[in-house]
Every structure is written in C-alpha cells, then in structure tokens.
C-alpha cells in the first residue's frame, strides 16, 4: 500500500484555475463515494479550501495511483486532464505524510501559521469518516495530524501575530485609506470568513458595517455580532454607493456583483474611491469591475505577502514546528511498522487463551472437589503465568518489526510458536466477513494488507 496526495494550491495554480476545482460542501459526500470506488483507492479524504484542493488516498498500486486520481478529477470536474495536469503536485508515502502535517499546522498556508486550515482539515477528515471513506491508516494519520497541529499552536507563538486572509484584507485596505475611521464597510456573505473580516474591520475603527446575505436571517445574526445593519442582496446592490469598503465571501456559484452594478453605484459616489476585495472561491466579484474608475479590486491571490512584518516571526516559530513534524513522522512510521505484527500477536494470544481454557477444563474434570473460589484463584494465577510468558516475546517482535530484517524475524516468530494454522484461520475469518460487500471497505482492506510496508516508509527503515 501507499499513501499519496494529489492536489493544486495557490502556489501551483492561479485563482481562475483553482475556482474550477472547488467542491461545494453539499457535493463532498458524493465526491468521496466516487473517489473511494475509483480503482486502486482503499481510503480517501478530500481537503478543499479557497487556497487548495487536495485528494489524499491510500492506494494499492504505486505506479498507476496518480493516473487513477487524475481520472477521477477529469470525470468529476468534466475537464480534460491537459487543462490541469501542469498545475498538480503529487507526494507519496513519507512526503505525503509530512505534507499533511505541514498543511494541518498552517506551515503550507498562504499566510503561514494561520489556524483556519486546521478546522478545515478536521472537517474534511470527519466528513470522510462519516462517509466510510477512511480506514485504519487515515483514521490514525489524520487524528495524529490534527492533534499535532493543535499542539504546534499551543506550544509555539506562531499564532500570536495577527495574520490571516481576513486580516490581510484589512491591511490591504489600510494601504488605500490609511485607516477605517468614518468609513462604511459592506460585508457580503455571513460565513466564518466574513465574520473574521468584520471583526478585524470593526477593531480597526470602521464606523458603520452593513451585512448583506442571500438569507436575511444569517445577515441579522452576523450583524448583531458586529453591531452592524443587516440587508438582503437586493438591498445591498441598491445601497452599494454607501460603502467605502466591500468584502465579499459567499458560496455562490456565480458572480454576486457585476461591472454595470458597480459602475452605477460609482456615479453616485462622486469620485470617492471604493475598495473591494474578493476572498471567495469561486470568485464573487466580476473581474471586469477592476476597469471601473476609482475602484480598487483585489482577489485572494493579491493577499499573499501583505503582512510581511508578522510573517518573519512566524517563520522563526515554524522551525520549531518542523522539528515537531519530524518527530511525528517517525512516530507514525513506528506505529505503521507494528501493523505487520498485529495478526501474529493476535494469533499468539488466541492460541494461549485456547490452551489456558482447555487446561482449566481438564483441571476441573481431574479435580472435581475444587470449589468456585479455588477455581477462580487457580484461573487467575495460571492466566497471569501465561500473560507473563507472552509479554517478552510480544515486546521483542514489536521492536524487531522496525529493524532491517523484520520479515525474517516475523517468519521465525510464527515458526517458533507454531502459529501457521491460527493465522490462516484468522485470515479465512476476515475474508468470509468481507464477502457480502461488493464495494471495497477501506477498513478491512487496510487491515488485511497491513503486513505490507509502503515503499517510502520502508525505505526509511535503518
């Protein structure tokens, strides 16, 4: 098996390409079902944000895995692969695992160290888990990545400097106006990004906030939090001339503001500048708006590098997180190596329990005069002897699983304890349990193949 990630992000693809590869929240369950039914894919998670679309997968074929995932993308987005292959990156095994750790902790974000991505990775994992698209490997890996990312933010000061996409939008506005005193801000959309941006604008002196949303109830809810005024989208277009700053972040599939609507509003502003920033994906604001006089239009790609003064501090802190990632990667390797010995240990324990049970049955027949208390004491003591006898062999085989000749050690372990039949019985039981399902079950597939080591991880074994 191999762990891989295929994706594109703000470094490899401009916004006009990325917006064609977004997954609407309501479409993710269907996408995950289609992904896990793709040939050779045993487990899958889709991480889709405004700055990246990444498909994580556990696959059983090393050489064709990228081809199968590109085929999935080609079918899902109805685009020929020639239009997007050059924008894709693919990491395998150790590199894929390290990439996930970097993404979850914010080290791979446009604004280094931002925390929003952690919640997005967690939500992506939980969605995949709910859709039964994850199994043994990803259940462990994503939980470890999420836990590590939380620890990275609590044990370093990487998040102390106020830097995020929403904060970068505010900093960009300051370059136009100097400050937001006596300025009216219109926020289009009532999601998390809109709320964060609104809070930054309010704390930076915005005098009036107008919150527009397709659903008025959501606009009222956010307006109450920000001390602003709610309105519908139709009302927002009519009041556009009142705004000095427009921040748009909706989940709309089409532009919510067009060039002619902005041009009409600007005629009523008497040459006063209008600052507009589009932090939605796909974009909310018609790019042609930039041609309107005295309108300053920016999209999410324009935010990169805006808050450089705080980024330097974050880069220093990121070195600490890089060390944490290296430790976590080694921890995952160690855990993975033990998967190969789990069937062996289970077989030994099952055999020991059978011998113990048969011995106690024989003892009870040979010594019928023993009362219930005496049998309980004997059963407890003999069970303790069995467990102590197994303790060192189990510990040693776990240790040897990470060594160079792990395969030979496991073979010898099986022969020494005569576990061939027990292992075969366990394999047949697992196969029989999986027969009724025609669709690949990631959990069963991962566990049945767990004695194999991904090439990238195996190569790192000393």
UniProtKB/TrEMBL annotation:
Pathway noted in the entry: Porphyrin-containing compound metabolism; protoporphyrin-IX biosynthesis; 5-aminolevulinate from L-glutamyl-tRNA(Glu): step 1/2
Domain Quinate/shikimate 5-dehydrogenase/glutamyl-tRNA reductase: 171-306
Domain of life: Bacteria
Location of region: Disordered: 427-462
Active site, renumbered: 50 (nucleophile)
GO molecular function, one term: NADP binding
Residues annotated as domain Tetrapyrrole biosynthesis glutamyl-tRNA reductase dimerisation: 320-419
Binding site for NADP(+): 189-194
Entry EC number(s): 1.2.1.70
Annotated ranges, domain Glutamyl-tRNA reductase N-terminal: 6-156
Coiled coil regions in record: none
Family, as annotated: Belongs to the glutamyl-tRNA reductase family.
Protein name: Glutamyl-tRNA reductase
Organism whose genome encodes this protein: Paenibacillus cellulosilyticus
């Amino acid at each position: 098996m191999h762990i891989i990630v295929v994706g594109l992000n703000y470094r490899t693809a401009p916004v006009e390409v990325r917006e064609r590869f977004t997954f609407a929240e309501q479409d993710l369950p269907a996408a995950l079902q289609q992904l896990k039914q793709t040939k050779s894919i045993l487990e899958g998670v889709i991480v889709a944000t405004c700055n990246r679309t990444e498909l994580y997968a556990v696959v059983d074929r090393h050489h064709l895995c990228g081809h199968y995932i590109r085929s999935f993308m080609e079918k899902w987005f109805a685009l020929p692969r020639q239009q997007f292959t050059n924008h894709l990156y693919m990491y395998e095994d150790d590199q894929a695992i390290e990439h996930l750790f970097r993404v979850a902790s914010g080290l791979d974000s446009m604004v280094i160290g931002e925390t929003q991505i952690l919640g997005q990775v967690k939500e992506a994992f939980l969605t995949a888990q709910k859709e039964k698209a994850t199994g043994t490997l990803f259940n462990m890996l994503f939980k470890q990545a999420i836990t590590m990312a939380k620890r990275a933010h609590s044990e370093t000061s990487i998040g102390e400097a106020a830097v995020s996409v929403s904060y970068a939008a505010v900093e960009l506005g300051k370059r136009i106006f100097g400050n937001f005193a006596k300025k009216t801000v219109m926020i289009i959309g009532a999601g998390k990004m809109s709320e964060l941006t609104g809070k930054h604008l309010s704390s930076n002196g915005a005098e009036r906030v107008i919150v527009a949303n397709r659903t008025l109830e959501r606009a009222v809810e956010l307006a109450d939090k920000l001390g602003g005024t709610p309105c519908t989208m139709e009302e927002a277009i009519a009041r556009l001339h009142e705004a000095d700053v427009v921040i748009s972040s909706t989940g709309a599939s089409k532009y919510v503001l067009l060039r002619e609507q902005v041009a009409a509003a600007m005629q009523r502003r008497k040459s006063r500048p209008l600052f507009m920033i589009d932090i939605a994906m796909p974009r909310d604001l018609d790019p042609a708006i930039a041609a309107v006089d005295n309108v300053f239009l920016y999209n999410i790609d324009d935010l990169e590098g805006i808050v450089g003064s705080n980024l330097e501090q974050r880069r220093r802190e990121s070195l600490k997180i890089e060390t944490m990632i290296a430790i976590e990667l080694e921890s995952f390797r160690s855990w993975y190596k033990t998967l190969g010995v789990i069937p062996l240990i289970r077989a030994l324990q099952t055999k020991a329990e059978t011998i113990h049970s048969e011995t106690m049955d024989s003892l009870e027949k040979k010594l019928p005069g023993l009362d219930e208390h005496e049998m309980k004491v004997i059963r407890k003591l003999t069970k303790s002897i069995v467990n102590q006898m197994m303790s060192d062999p189990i510990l040693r085989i776990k240790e040897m699983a990470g060594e160079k000749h792990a395969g030979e050690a496991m073979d010898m372990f099986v022969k020494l304890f005569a576990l061939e039949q027990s292992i075969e019985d366990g394999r047949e039981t697992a196969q029989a349990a999986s027969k009724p399902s025609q669709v690949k079950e990631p959990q069963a597939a991962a566990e049945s193949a767990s004695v194999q080591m991904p090439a990238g991880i195996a190569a790192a074994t000393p």
